Amino acid sequence: MKYDLVYKDNIMLCIKQHSKKEIITMLSGLLKESKIVTNSEKFINAVYDRENRGSTYCGDYLALPHGCSDCVTKP
């Protein structure tokens, strides 16, 4: 089965002036607007839960924050 996992409209670039908390909040809002997430707060909690298990920072200012929750409508 094929899944489109990354949508170009949901990629945030040049946001280094914001804190990690602000970036996760922005991501959650963006995904809610795109109808990929139904509940922003629940998704934010899932992202922090994932971050607590291990950072999603990849290096060179690249991070792939994500979380597992029933509020996510698409993989």
What does it look like?
There is one protein chain. This protein starts with 19 loop residues before the first helix and ends in a 12-residue tail after the last strand. It is mostly helical and 75 residues long. The chain is built from 2 helices and 2 strands. Strands 1-2 form a two-stranded antiparallel sheet. The chain has a domain at 19-63. Strand 1 (57-59) and strand 2 (62-63) form a beta hairpin. The longest helix is centred in the middle third of the chain and has 14 residues, at 20-33.
Computed Rg: 12 Å
- Count every helix, treating DSSP H or I runs of 4 or more residues as helices: 2
Distance between the termini: 12 Å
Strand order of the largest sheet: 1-2
Quaternary class: single chain
Poorly predicted parts: none
Shape: globular
Mean pLDDT: 86
Q: What's the helix-strand series? A: HHEE
Number of strands: 2
Determine the strand fraction and express it as a percent band.
Answer: 5-15%
Largest sheet: 2 strands, antiparallel
Task: Describe the secondary-structure layout.
Blueprint: H1 20-33, H2 40-53, E1 57-59, E2 62-63
Antiparallel strand pairs: 1-2
